[in-house]
């Protein structure tokens, strides 16, 4: 700072005063002293001169020191001032620099804050806005400058403002930064989700002087998350849930079983299969069948408590994993379940009765793994079916032996074709009036290690293991060769019947195989009758009908075997391209004592004649059976009454006779 010179006048005055007083004193005192000391007048003048010189000298010295002191003071004051000026200039410059820096960083901050898509704002302790970036202004539909100085009450509805104020107070009190999701309704009425971060503004001393807030609109992010979550759920439902019953599916229960087996806690697996569900499906349609499955699932939920894990395995099969290993307890539950099945299920105003067969295996008593458990429960379930259905069966180690024997048999059967163990037998079909042979059926035999195994045993086995195609081809090939030979020799004027199983018929190459074999053997289609069973039609009626039409177009004769055992026979009769009906032995047996069977057989004979279909009775053994059929004008008969199935040479002898 400048120091002005108020001391100048004071200094000058001070020097003048000193000089005035000292000069006055000197004059008065020195003249008085001289008058006392010096008496001589001449000397007085001389002394007066010396006195004057001394005074001048003395005052000169005094003046010198005084002015020296004064100027040196002034000099140092001046230097100090100069220094101050320089310092001041410097401070001013640095102040300017910092102001420039400050405004630069202000600009920077403003640019960043205003370019942010997030709403950024700050309020003072009174709740008035001191910062309101562009994003905030846009959301609030305000101008930035307008908002500064406003509080929440001026911007939002009172309820919202109250809520915001309350929250601000909490933040001010706790001095903590908080982050949370906030749901708001935007001005266009849409629900929006914000991710909000709020915290205190602190000064150097750590005192709160306001609060800041950053709000990010995460609505689309949340929607995306929800979409992902829903997709995950949908995917889960698709892959783990059965659509018909809403129960978990096979995949899910497999995971549960694996987990249970790893925990080594005893439990059991019940596999439940509905008996004759196919008949319900065929009679009432698939939608009805689906409803029935749903009703069955409800019964299962009712019987087993929430600790049980229920699943639909597919088709008409259900699985129940139960945290029980005590057979008596399980049996009690199974009895309760089977009792439920004794009531009809009411669907679309229709009451249907259905039964179920179940197989049960227990971990770890019977099985050690999930795969074994399925196998064991399945085997037990088949045992229950074998025992007459509508029952349940626990797994027995004996079943395993049977299963091993079964597998062994399949292996042997595989080799049977190559080893030449398969052979055709033949049984005649006779006209009922004349007893003349009007046809021959080829029946397959398996001579395995000296034993004769019946087709009823190994044909189902071959069908299950898909060996049936290979075996069937052997039968067709051999049958065609035999038919050709008999026709060439003229010993059979009519047809040779060959049995065709359902799986063989619906196999992709069947028609092609037939054509190829006709060509290769030189046999004619008109010499051959193909027998299909009624049940094979029921499995896939549309496909079978179309296949049969193609077969008939090739020139083959088609007969329906085991007629009457397939339940819905009559409804198909009019659509099926068949030439012959073979009434099943079960209707013929002891027919004289079976009035109902008599009516059925009479009706079928009548029906066949009306439709122009040849009619044959199977398994005729006795004269009584024969005479009944003769009376009722059946076309032909096949049975022990005439002849049992016999080897080729025997049959040829019979034909030549
Ligand atoms: P199926 O086609 O109904 O053949 C008639 C069955 O009844 C034959 O049994 C025959 O021996 C038997 N049978 C005939 N007359 C009488 C009788 O008076 N009394 C009794 N009790 N039975 C009689 P088989 O040969 O044991 O054949 C059983 C079934 O195996 C056949 O029933 C047929 O469905 C099937 N089968 C036989 N050979 C073949 C074949 O080459 N291919 C296919 N897919 N199935 C075949
Ligand atoms: Mg047959
Ligand atoms: Mg039959």
List keywords for this structure.
4 domains, eight-stranded mixed beta barrel, Alpha-Beta Plaits, 20% strand, Beta-Lactamase, binds ligand C2E, binds magnesium ion, five-stranded antiparallel beta sheet
Task: Please sum up the structure shown.
The chain folds into 4 domains: 4-110; 116-222, 2-Layer Sandwich (Beta-Lactamase); 241-395, 2-Layer Sandwich (Alpha-Beta Plaits), CATH 3.30.70.270; 408-656, TIM Barrel (Alpha-Beta Barrel), CATH 3.20.20.
What does this structure look like?
The chain is an alpha/beta fold and 657 residues long. It folds into four domains: 4-110; 116-222, PAS domain (Beta-Lactamase); 241-395, Alpha-Beta Plaits (2-Layer Sandwich), CATH 3.30.70.270; 408-656, Alpha-Beta Barrel (TIM Barrel), CATH 3.20.20.450. The strands form four sheets. An eight-stranded mixed beta barrel has the order 13-14-16-17-18-19-20-21, surrounded by five helices. A five-stranded antiparallel β-sheet has the order 2-1-5-4-3. Strand 13 and strand 14 form a beta hairpin. The longest helix has 75 residues, at 41-115. Bound molecules: ligand C2E and magnesium ion (2 copies).
Secondary-structure blueprint:
Elements: H1 7-37, H2 41-115, E1 119-124, E2 129-132, H3 134-140, H4 144-147, H5 152-155, H6 158-174, E3 178-185, E4 191-202, E5 208-217, H7 219-240, H8 250-263, E6 267-274, H9 277-284, H10 286-303, E7 309-314, E8 317-322, H11 327-340, E9 345-347, E10 350-352, E11 356-363, H12 370-386, E12 392-394, H13 397-419, E13 422-431, E14 437-448, E15 451-453, H14 455-464, H15 468-489, E16 495-500, H16 502-505, H17 510-521, E17 528-533, H18 534-539, H19 541-553, E18 557-563, H20 569-573, E19 580-583, H21 585-588, H22 595-611, E20 614-618, H23 623-631, E21 636-638, H24 648-656
Parallel strand pairs: 11-12, 14-16, 16-17, 17-18, 18-19, 19-20, 20-21
Antiparallel strand pairs: 1-2, 1-5, 3-4, 4-5, 6-8, 6-11, 7-8, 9-10, 13-14, 13-21, 14-15
Helix pairs in contact: 1-2, 9-10, 15-17
The structure holds ligand C2E and magnesium ion (2 copies).
One magnesium ion binds at residues 441, 499, 531, 561.
């Amino acid at each position: 700072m400048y120091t002005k010179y108020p001391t100048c006048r004071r200094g000058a005055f001070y020097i003048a005063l000193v000089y005035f007083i000292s000069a006055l004193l000197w004059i008065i005192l020195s003249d008085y002293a001289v008058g006392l000391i010096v008496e001589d007048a001449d000397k007085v003048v001389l002394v007066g001169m010396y006195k004057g010189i001394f005074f001048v000298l003395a005052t000169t010295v005094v003046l010198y020191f005084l002015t020296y002191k004064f100027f040196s003071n002034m000099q140092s004051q001046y230097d100090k001032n100069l220094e101050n000026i320089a310092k001041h200039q410097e401070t001013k410059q640095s102040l300017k620099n910092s102001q420039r820096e400050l405004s630069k960083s202000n600009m920077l901050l403003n640019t960043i804050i205003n370019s942010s898509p997030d709403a950024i704002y700050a309020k003072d302790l009174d709740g008035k806005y001191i910062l309101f970036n562009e994003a905030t202004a846009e959301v609030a539909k305000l101008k930035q400058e307008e908002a500064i100085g406003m509080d929440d009450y001026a911007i939002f509805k009172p309820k919202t403002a109250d809520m915001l104020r309350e929250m601000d107070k909490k933040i001010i009190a706790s001095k903590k930064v908080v982050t949370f999701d906030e749901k708001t309704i935007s001005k266009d009425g849409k629900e929006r989700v914000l991710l909000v971060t709020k915290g205190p503004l602190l000064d150097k001393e750590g005192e709160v002087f306001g609060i800041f807030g950053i709000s990010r609109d995460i609505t689309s992010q949340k929607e995306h998350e929800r979409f992902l979550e829903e997709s995950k759920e949908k995917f889960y439902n698709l892959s783990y849930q059965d659509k018909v019953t809403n129960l978990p599916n096979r995949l899910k229960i497999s995971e549960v079983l694996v987990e249970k087996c790893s925990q080594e806690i005893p439990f059991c697996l019940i596999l439940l299969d509905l008996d004759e569900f196919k008949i319900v499906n065929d009679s009432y349609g698939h939608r009805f069948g689906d409803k029935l499955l749903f009703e069955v699932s409800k019964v299962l939920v009712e019987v087993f408590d929430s600790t049980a894990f229920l699943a639909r395995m597919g088709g008409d099969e259900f699985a129940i994993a139960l945290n029980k290993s005590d057979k008596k307890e399980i049996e009690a539950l199974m009895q309760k379940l089977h009792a439920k099945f004794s009531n009809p299920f009411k669907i679309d105003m229709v009451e249907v009765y259905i039964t179920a067969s179940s197989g049960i295996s227990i971990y770890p008593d019977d099985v050690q793994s999930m795969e074994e458990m399925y196998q064991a429960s399945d085997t037990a379930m088949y045992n229950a079916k074998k025992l007459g259905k509508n029952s349940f069966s626990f797994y027995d180690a004996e079943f395993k032996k049977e299963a091993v024997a079964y597998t062994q048999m399949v292996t042997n059967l595989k080799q049977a074709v190559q080893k030449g163990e398969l052979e055709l037998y033949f049984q005649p079909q006779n006209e009922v009036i004349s007893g003349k042979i009007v046809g021959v059926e080829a029946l397959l035999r398996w001579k395995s290690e000296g034993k004769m195994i019946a087709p009823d045993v190994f044909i189902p086995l071959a069908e299950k293991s898909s060996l049936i195609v290979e075996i069937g081809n052997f039968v067709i090939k051999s049958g065609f060769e035999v038919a050709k030979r008999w026709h060439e020799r003229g010993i059979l004027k009519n047809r040779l019947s060959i049995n065709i199983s359902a799986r063989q018929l619906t196999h992709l190459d069947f028609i092609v195989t037939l054509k190829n074999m006709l060509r290769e053997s030189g046999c004619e289609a008109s010499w051959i009758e193909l027998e299909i069973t009624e049940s094979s039609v029921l499995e896939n009626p549309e496909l079978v009908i179309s296949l049969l039409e193609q077969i008939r177009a090739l020139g083959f004769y088609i007969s329906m075997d085991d007629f009457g055992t397939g339940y819905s026979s009559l409804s198909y009769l009019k659509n099926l391209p068949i030439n012959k009906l073979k009434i099943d032995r079960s209707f013929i047996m002891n027919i004289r004592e079976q009035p109902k069977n008599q009516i059925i057989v009479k009706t079928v004979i009548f029906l066949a004649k009306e439709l122009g279909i040849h009619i044959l009775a199977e398994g005729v053994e006795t004269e009584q059976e024969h005479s009944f059929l003769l009376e009722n004008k059946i076309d032909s008969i096949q049975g022990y009454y005439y002849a049992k199935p016999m080897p080729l040479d025997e049959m040829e002898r019979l034909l030549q006779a």
